[in-house]
TrEMBL record:
Coiled coil: none annotated. InterPro entries: DnaJ, DnaJ_C, DnaJ_domain, DnaJ_domain_CS, HSP40/DnaJ_pept-bd, HSP_DnaJ_Cys-rich_dom, HSP_DnaJ_Cys-rich_dom_sf, J_dom_sf. It comes from Lolliginicoccus lacisalsi. Pfam families: DnaJ, DnaJ_C, DnaJ_CXXCXGXG. It comes from the Bacteria. Participates actively in the response to hyperosmotic and heat shock by preventing the aggregation of stress-denatured proteins and by disaggregating proteins, also in an autonomous, DnaK-independent fashion. Unfolded proteins bind initially to DnaJ; upon interaction with the DnaJ-bound protein, DnaK hydrolyzes its bound ATP, resulting in the formation of a stable complex. GrpE releases ADP from DnaK; ATP binding to DnaK triggers the release of the substrate protein, thus completing the reaction cycle. This is Chaperone protein DnaJ. Keywords: Chaperone, Cytoplasm, DNA replication, Metal-binding, Repeat, Stress response, Zinc, Zinc-finger. Zn(2+) 2 binds at C193, C196, C215, C218. Belongs to the DnaJ family. The gene is dnaJ. One of its GO terms (biological process) is protein refolding.
């Protein structure tokens, strides 16, 4: 997104807060909107998806106090009536005596990106427009980094807990394999632009302000390619399909995003590539569940097993284990098996929590019913009352 679009957006409105909202209010507003507008909660709803993107973009800028300050300053200056010589925030700058001498904000500022996927930012806006720091001769213009990419992958419950490696097929702009991203024909190399001495911009003074605009000869890149690569037409980038092997760390959760640095869209003419963000979707397990770093499982048992005691065979992610249940165990008791939960990056893994739950038979055979009646009689004779002391009894 170019900086002109930054100024035309109302990030406060996108989050539903006032321009004097505190950082905490901004954070709360985003946390309230994000789960409501998230694409997972609104499958197929393009309007909700666009609102989610707008809210995320707004939060990413406003949560940074320095960027927020520059954004506020720019809005006050460009929307508050500062118009030397007929300045138009939506159409460009025109000198007082020549209505046809205007030039576009896109030409002044270049093609920056709001999400980290391109050159630019509010620091560049003020340095370029008002020459705050000035461009020294020979100073290189910031490379246009490639955009970030997003994709999804689906994992089994076991792979999500223990970690795995997955191949991902990506179709996107990537570094040209012929020129290796330089944009120049093999055997040649780009040369420094003689007009701007590699700065990528031409500076001039108009009144009290210093203005900078992209060099027309090199189009703001600071270099000229005399013999462009035939395969990528000098851009250093070609759209192609590639397979990326991604290591999924142990313990990822459903919906979690993993950042793979430098695996996004390739930058122009050898500039740094963007990042790849992989959203993980986890399939449920037939019997196991997860609570933070612990795994949980509920094992059905009979009354006799709890009363007499037993050893249960309990499934885990790497085989079955035996869990001893002592005689007289109550229904719903939880047994903790140390170290059988979710691995941690540092420290001990979580635990396996085994809950025992009595399962009552829907019907009894004649022999079972007779035996149970005898047991009930013996139970009463022994003085056992399951409701003794309960509800005032």
């Amino acid at each position: 997104m170019v900086q002109r679009e930054w100024l035309e957006k109302d990030f406060y409105k996108d989050l539903g807060v006032s321009s004097d909202a505190s950082q905490e209010e901004i954070k709360k507003a985003y946390r309230k909107l994000a789960p409501i507008l998230h694409p997972d909660a609104n499958p197929g709803d393009k309007q909700a998806e666009e609102r989610f993107k707008a809210a995320s973009e707004a939060y990413n800028l406003l949560k940074d106090p320095a960027k927020r300050k520059e954004y506020d300053e720019a809005r006050r200056m460009f929307r508050g009536g500062y118009r030397p010589g007929g300045f138009d925030p939506r159409g460009g700058y025109q000198s007082a005596g020549d209505a046809d001498a205007g030039f576009s904000f896109g030409d002044i500022f270049g093609g920056g990106g709001a999400g980290g996927g391109g050159a630019g930012g509010f620091g560049d806006l003020f340095e370029g427009l008002f020459n705050r720091q000035g461009h020294q001769p020979g100073a290189a213009r910031r490379p246009q980094r490639g955009r970030h990419l997003e994709t999804d992958t689906r994992l089994t419950f076991r792979d999500a807990v223990l970690g795995t490696t997955v191949p991902l097929r990506i179709t996107s702009p990537a570094a040209c394999t012929t020129c290796h991203g330089s944009g120049a024909r093999p055997g040649t190399a780009p040369r420094t632009c003689p007009r701007c001495n590699g700065a990528g911009v031409i500076s001039s003074n108009q009144g009290a302000f210093g203005f900078s605009e992209p060099c027309e000869d090199c189009r703001g890149t600071g270099s000229i390619i005399d013999s462009p690569c035939a395969d990528c037409s000098g851009t250093g980038v070609r759209t192609r399909s590639r397979t990326i092997t991604v290591r999924i760390p142990p313990g990822v959760s459903d919906g979690q995003k993993i950042r793979i640095a430098g695996k996004g869209e390739a930058g122009m003419r050898g500039a740094a590539a963007g990042d790849l963000y992989v959203t993980v979707h986890v399939d449920p397990h037939p019997v196991l569940d997860r609570s933070g770093q612990d795994l949980t499982v509920t094992v059905p048992v009979s009354f006799s097993e709890l009363a007499l005691g037993t050893t249960l065979s309990v499934p885990t992610l790497d085989g079955r284990i035996g869990v001893k249940v002592p005689a007289g165990t109550g229904d719903g008791r939880i047994f903790r098996v140390r170290g059988r939960g979710v691995p941690r990056k540092a420290g001990e893994p979580g635990d396996l929590l085994v809950t025992v739950a009595v399962k009552v038979p829907a019907s009894l055979s004649a022999d079972a019913a007779e035996a149970l009646e005898k047991y009930a009689a013996a139970e009463r004779a022994g003085g056992f009352d399951p409701r003794a002391g309960w509800a005032g009894a």
